[in-house]
Design goal:
Layout: E1 3-8, E2 11-16, H1 20-33, E3 38-42, E4 45-49, E5 60-63, H2 72-85, E6 92-94, H3 100-108, E7 112-123, H4 141-152, H5 159-167, E8 172-180, E9 184-194, E10 197-205, H6 214-228, E11 233-239, H7 243-251, E12 255-264
Parallel strand pairs: 10-11
Antiparallel strand pairs: 1-2, 3-4, 4-5, 6-12, 7-11, 7-12, 8-9, 9-10
Helix pairs in contact: 4-5
InterPro entries: Acyl_CoA_acyltransferase (IPR016181), GNAT_dom (IPR000182), Rv0428c-like_C (IPR056935), YpeA/RimI_acetyltransf (IPR050680)
Keywords: Acyltransferase, Transferase
Protein name: GNAT superfamily N-acetyltransferase
């Protein structure tokens, strides 16, 4: 896809030529792959809230129709109140589906821009993964969550919330964990198989073993499992600043489908995870 940077108010955003039908489908499977505790619709705005976990994807307003821009200020105020009731600050996830009028409103009000991410996809039909699988998924969700938190150096107190999120995933999921006898968990990946699509989630490599081929091995294992389960295409989300991960994915054949970012009212903090 061709992206052009532009200045919108004081904040950089992006415009792109994208297939909105593909965006809608990937957004839908993304919500199923990473379910929020509370879901509320205001028109076509999907409001997702999860009090126990700081993930921005689980705590954001997600506009899903570019033509739904009525009463923007009033609806954002109502959303802000809903977020406050959950102990959260209002956050909007801006994708190609966000109405231009809403983007203009946020620009005019001085909303901050942060958390730029890319959505990448790969056609699995073009890859030969063989007939077998070299690494089986584990069944212990808590063990996986412990490893993910340890590798990511995250707050151990978020363990139960992560267990709850993974346990709430409806589509078939594969939990992959690589370990070393001396340093413990080295890599994790959560693969969510949803009809002909497979999402690669929670992909993380421990700092001491990066650039040693483990990331490539884990990605290959994840994609092989997804293909053997019947998935035709894999997708994932990655922060735009994570150059090492993007390089790994592009070498595997992933290509950009679209981008998104987060917005918050001026003066509001945004320390949530991705």
């Amino acid at each position: 896809m061709t992206w052009k940077d532009r200045q919108s108010g004081d904040h950089p955003t992006a415009e792109a030529v994208v297939d909105l039908a593909s965006v809608r489908r990937l957004e839908a499977v993304g919500f199923r792959a990473w379910p929020a505790n509370t879901v509320h619709y205001d028109g076509s705005w999907l409001i997702r809230l999860t009090a126990g976990h700081p993930s921005k994807r689980l705590n954001s307003v997600n506009p899903l129709d570019p033509s739904d821009y009525r009463d923007i200020a009033i609806r954002l105020q109502k959303a802000s109140q809903r977020f406050a009731e959950h102990g959260r600050s209002l956050t909007v996830r801006q994708t190609p589906l966000t109405p231009p009028q809403m983007i203009a409103h946020m620009d005019a009000e001085g909303w901050t821009v942060f958390g730029h991410s890319l959505v990448l996809a790969l056609d699995l039909a073009e890859r030969d993964f063989g007939e077998g699988i070299d690494h089986l998924p584990i069944k212990d969700v808590r063990r996986f969550a412990d490893a993910r938190i340890r590798i990511g150096k995250e707050d151990p107190g978020s363990n139960q919330a992560l267990v709850d999120i993974i346990s709430a995933i409806k589509p078939e999921s594969g939990l992959f964990l690589f370990e070393d006898r001396e340093i413990g968990p080295t890599a994790v990946s959560l693969v969510v198989h949803d009809n002909d699509l497979a999402g690669i989630m929670q992909f993380a490599i421990a700092a001491p073993v990066r650039r040693q081929g483990i990331g490539n091995a884990l990605l290959g294992t994840s994609l092989r499992w997804a293909r053997l389960r019947g998935a035709k295409k894999a997708w994932l989300q990655v922060e735009a600043a994570n150059e090492a991960a993007i390089e790994l994915y592009r070498k595997a054949g992933f290509a950009e489908v679209y981008r998104y970012l987060y917005r918050a009212p001026r003066g509001v903090g945004h320390g949530n995870q991705g």
